[in-house]
Every structure is written in structure tokens, then in C-alpha cells.
Amino acid sequence: MLNHAIISAALALATLPFAVQGAQLTARNQDPICAWIERAISSASNVYYPGDTLYNKGVAHWATTANQVSKCVVEPGTAADVGTVLRIVGGTRTPFAVKGAGHSPNPKFASTTGVHISMYRFNNVTYDADAQTAEIGTGLVWDNVYDALAPHGVNIVGGRVPGVGVAGFTLGGGYSWKTNQFGLTIDTLVAFELVRPDGKVVKVTHESDPQLFMGLKGGFNNFGIVTKFTLKTHPQSEVWGGPTQIGADHIDEVTDATVEWDATATDPKAQVMTTYTYARGELDITLFLFYDGPTPPAGMFDRFLAIPNHGSDVKTRPFADMVQSTPTAASYGFRGIFNAFSVLDTTRSLVDVIINETQYWGQQLSAKTGIITTYAVEPFLRSMYSHNTEQTAFPPTRSIPFLPFNIYYAWLNSTYDEEFYNAARVSTKVITDAAVAEGQRAAAEAPLYPNNAIFDTPISKVYGDNLPALRAVKRRVDPANVMGLAGGWKV
Ligand SMILES: Cc1cc2nc3c(=O)[nH]c(=O)nc-3n(C[C@H](O)[C@H](O)[C@H](O)COP(=O)(O)OP(=O)(O)OC[C@H]3O[C@@H](n4cnc5c(N)ncnc54)[C@H](O)[C@@H]3O)c2cc1C
Ligand SMILES: *[C@@H]1O[C@H](CO)[C@@H](O)[C@H](O)[C@H]1NC(C)=O
Ligand SMILES: *[C@@H]1O[C@H](CO)[C@@H](O)[C@H](O)[C@H]1NC(C)=O
Ligand SMILES: *[C@@H]1O[C@H](CO)[C@@H](O)[C@H](O)[C@H]1NC(C)=O
Questions:
Q1: Which of 119, 181, 228, 367 sits most deeply, having the most CB atoms within 10 A of its CB?
Q2: How far apart are CA 208 and CA 466, in angstroms?
Q3: Is the predicted pLDDT of residue 169 greater than 60, yes or no?
Q4: Beta 115-118 vs 315-317: how paired, if at all?
Q5: Minimum-distance ligand to the CA of 80?
Q6: pLDDT value at 329 more than 80
Q7: Which backbone phi and psi does 345 adopt, to 5 degrees?
Q8: Which family does it belong to (predicted)?
Q9: Nearest atom, ligand 2, residue 79 CA
Q10: pLDDT at position 212, please?
């Protein structure tokens, strides 16, 4: 049915030259807004409907908890067409979604029952050797970016595992294998190409608009749709590292080595990540070692390498191969949730709590529906926040040197969604309370990383004292709150 109220509201917008065209329907589709978009966009873009193959690709997410059935999928091919779509959905107050690569498991963050915008066509990588920067499209996954930059012998601060989207990763912060050396991905940002909520395409830099530039560095879709990032590059040699699987019988050795690493490591080229997983009735550890060079300094990782394992793929390799070698705890097609908790120190007593939580919730929840629980211990250097003196939306403070630990649950049956969400909230609170109780008082005040935090985390836990500044930018750039029609973190 044609929705007359929506169409007449849209016609009232004098700024829309295509409003009259939009009132006509195509035979193929009865949704007036999708049909209007289809007529208004250029030949560089397309609209897909349920039943089209590319519709299914467009609405898919890494975790099925993030899926919704939209009226149509729009694949814009130019920034100007993104602007056209934003004018139409904004003018008609139509709920919409913006999806980079769909890796956020949070429901409704990159999905909608309205108009679903998929950014796939923004897939260019352009290296500028003189400026030592790369422009990358927001429809890419990191693997594409690494492959495109490798022939130039350069790299960028990006994702650690295969297949993760550049858009949400960068717009939320971005913790990388390179973070100890160069900071978060947002710390390497030179410029954004942004389609503002009014449809205008602008380049945003520190010079052009310092407040908006700050807001975009952690502020996701609050200020419009980003079509391109310009990021700093750095020379890239072969690297050393990869994953090792270690059984529960050696859990004390790996935990002690991780705790010692956190207390003593100083080389910013090195990184360790220890993940505890409960699956198929067993606790197992995946240890990730990384060194940004073909060979680590003698002895650096010996304590880890001496632990007996049941599968190891640690070697000298191209950077993209390191990323490809990294197993993700689960792949596409599971229900899933992440939750974030921040700690100040990786102490043995705290990791014991984390291990107990992995096992406790793994046992409790697997009784219901086949699952994995994974808890990641990520001992970055505390100097990682020192690589940027400009303000960024996230983290709101760089004076608390917090570590962004996280949990991940995967399951099969949607009947139990609420139980898993609730367990993810309870468990992160147990760990945070334990950190505070052992003297890490600032753990309770530390920011929570929005790319890992569960969907109903209070926004003040993400943006803290930056909220007034972010709200001021929001009022200026999006006075009609067009972006409020899309899901995700809202300032
Ligand atoms: C297997 C796996 C591994 C991960 N590893 C890491 C890691 O090592 N380090 C790390 O920091 N994070 C990691 N993450 C988290 C990751 O950063 C987030 O899931 C991120 O949001 C993924 O980006 P995306 O483009 O796929 O997001 P999407 O799910 O597509 O979008 C997330 C949010 O960003 C918004 N958004 C997307 N594109 C745009 C755009 N063009 N303009 C404006 N807003 C937009 C969406 O509307 C949505 O609200 C990992 C996630 C997974 C699933
Ligand atoms: C990608 O690059 C090609 C070649 O320069 C250009 O024609 C196209 O418009 C670019 N696409 C986007 C989405 O920027
Ligand atoms: C393990 O965690 C559960 C749930 O938080 C808790 O009830 C239990 O007391 C913990 N066990 C130990 C040994 O700490
Ligand atoms: C999901 O769980 C419910 C409740 O136990 C059960 O009735 C239903 O059959 C399950 N669905 C699937 C697909 O297994």
C-alpha cells in the first residue's frame, strides 16, 4: 500500500527535486520510499528487494542476532547518491540502517525494518606515496586493504582477524596489532569523506572542522555516513607470529606467562593476546603472539614458546598472512554478543576470575543451546594512548591507561537471546567488581570500548565527559536528527 502520509510529508520538502518522480511506483516494488530512492539515484547505485540475491548479501551480518528484514537494500555507488538516500529517508522520517561489513553483533546497530544502506561499493584503496597516506572506502574489510597496500611495502593500523569491516572498526576506535606502536586506528586519521545528514558531501579534517573531526573519531554514525577514510601509512616488513592452541592442563603456565608479560613488556613492536574459550565441554586457550619484524629479539617469547601445545602456527610471514592465520572463535551464522570490560592490570587473581567466568558461563549456557564462550585478555602497553594529542570522541579520557578486555558468546537458538545478553552483563560486572575489590579502583570508571560493549551500555560509559561536546556537534550538523533514524550508539 502506498503510504500517503509519508509521501505528502516528503513532497512538502522543497529541497527535494525528485519528489514528484518518487511518488510513482515501480511494478516490482510496493514500498514507496524504496521505489523513490530507485528513481532518484544514479546508475552507479542499485536497490534490491527480498528475493534478489544481492538483497540477501546486503542484509547479512556476521552474527545473526544483528539481522532484520528490511524493505529494501540500497547499494550506493557514489557519495552523492548516499546524499540522495539520506535526503529521502530524512525527509520522510523513514527508519534506515548503515552497514559497513556488518560485524557488530549488537541487534539493530546496522540493520532496520526500513531502508538498509550497504556500503560495499565504496571499495577503493588509493595509496599516496608522497603524503604517506591511503584513502580507503568504507565498504571494505581489512584483508582487502592489507592486500592492496602490500605491493607498496606499506601498511595501516587496522584489524587483527580475517574479514572485519573497516567502517565500524575505525569509527569506533580500532585496536590493532600495531596499536602499541601507533595508537588506535582513529589516531592515524587524516581526513574523512562524510555525507552529512542534509545530503551534502564534505571532506572533514582537523583544519576544516575540529569539533566534527573529533566527533567522527569514535562517534560512528551520529554525524552522517562516512564514505572514505584517509589514514596514515607506515613501512611494513614481514612479521613474526600467529596462534597457538593450548589445553586446559597447561592453563597455569600460559596464565603466569601472560601476567608476567603484562608486568614487564616494553617493546611496542610486540604484542600478546590470550583468549580463554569454553566449547564442547572443555576449556581451551588460544594464545596469539605478534612481533612487527621478521624475527623477535632473542628470548622475548621463550616463556610462551616453551608451553606444550596442541597446534601452533607461529612463524615469519607477510602481515596479511598473520591476519589470515588468526582463527575467530566462531564464524558467520551464529547468534552472538560481545561485551566490554576495562581493567588496569592483568593480575593473576583477576585472570583467575576471568577463567572461572569462562568456564562457569560456558557450562551454564551450553546446557541450553550449543555455544562458545570466549574471554580475551589483551595486555597492551599503557603508552598506547600517547600517540595522539588531539581529542577523540573515544576514549573520552586517555589519562586512565585501561586495557580493553572483552567477552564473546555464540549460540544457536534465538529463544535464549535474552539469557545470553543477561549473562554477558552479569559476567562483565563480576569481573569489574573483582578488579575494583583487588585495588584497581579506576576499572569501574574506565571507558568501555563501543565496538565491544553490549547494546544497552549507558552512553556515558562510552563517551564520558566528551558527551556535551559531541551533543553540540550533533545539534549543529544534524539539527533534524536524521541519524536518529538509524541504529547504533547515539550521543
Ligand atoms: C571476528 C571479529 C574480530 C574483531 N576484532 C577486532 C579487533 O581486533 N579490534 C577492534 O578494535 N575491534 C574488533 N572487532 C570489533 C569491530 O571493530 C566491530 O565489530 C566493527 O563495528 C566492525 O565494523 P563493520 O563495518 O563490520 O560494522 P557494522 O556492523 O557494519 O557497523 C557497526 C556500526 O557502525 C556504523 N557504520 C558502519 N558503516 C558506517 C559508515 N560508513 N558511516 C557511518 N556509520 C557507519 C553502523 O551504522 C553501526 O552502528 C572485531 C569484530 C569481530 C566480529
Ligand atoms: C573507485 O575508483 C574508480 C577509479 O578511479 C572510480 O571510477 C570510482 O568512482 C571509485 N569508486 C568510489 C566509490 O569512490
Ligand atoms: C565462579 O563464578 C561463579 C559465577 O560468577 C561464582 O558463583 C563462583 O563462586 C566462582 N567460583 C570461584 C571458585 O571463584
Ligand atoms: C529453541 O529452543 C526452544 C525452547 O527450548 C525449542 O522449543 C525450539 O525447538 C528450539 N529451536 C530450535 C531451532 O532448535
A1: 119
A2: 20
A3: yes
A4: unpaired
A5: 2
A6: no
A7: -140, 145
A8: Belongs to the oxygen-dependent FAD-linked oxidoreductase family.
A9: 13
A10: 98
Q: Has this prediction a pTM greater than 0.85?
A: yes
**By alpha-carbon position, which residue is closest to atom 6 of ligand 4?**
415
Q: Which three cell numbers stand for residue 145?
A: 586493504
Instruction: Give the span between the Cα atoms of 223 and 491, in whole angstroms.
Output: 10
Instruction: Output the CA 165–ligand 1 centroid distance in Å.
Output: 6
Q: Whose CA is nearest to atom 28 of ligand 1?
A: 102
Q: Taking the CA atoms of the chain, what radius of gyration do you get in angstroms?
A: 23
Least confident of 9-18, 52-61, 381-390, 420-429: 9-18
Distance CA 397, CA 442 (A): 12
Give pLDDT tens digits for 194-247.
Answer: 999 999 999 999 999 999 999 999 999 999 999 999 999 999 999 999 999 999
Q: Does the CB atom of residue 430 touch ligand 3 within 6 A?
A: yes
State residue 26's pLDDT score: 46
C-alpha of residue 279 to centroid of ligand 4, in Å: 20
- Using the mean position of ligand 4's atoms as its centre, give its distance from the Cα of residue 54 in Å: 30
**28 pLDDT band (50/70/90 cuts)?**
low
Residue 377 alpha carbon to ligand 3 centre in Å: 19
Each residue's pLDDT tens digit, 107-146: 999 999 999 999 999 999 999 999 999 999 999 999 999 9
Distance (Å, whole) CA 92 – CA 71: 15
Q: How far is the CA of 416 from the centre of ligand 4 (A)?
A: 9
Task: Among 140, 221, 323, 339, say which to mutate for ligand 1: greatest number of ligand atoms within 8 Å of CB.
Answer: 221
Q: How far apart are CA 443 and CA 416, in angstroms?
A: 30
CA distance 207 to 439: 42
User: 445 C-alpha vs ligand 1 centroid, how far in Å?
Assistant: 24
Taking residues 269-296, report their average pLDDT.
96
Residue 466 pLDDT > 60, yes or no? Answer: yes
Best of 74, 119, 124, 194 for a ligand 2 pocket test (most atoms within 8 Å of beta carbon): 124
Q: Is the CB of 168 inside a 6 Å radius of any atom of ligand 1?
A: yes
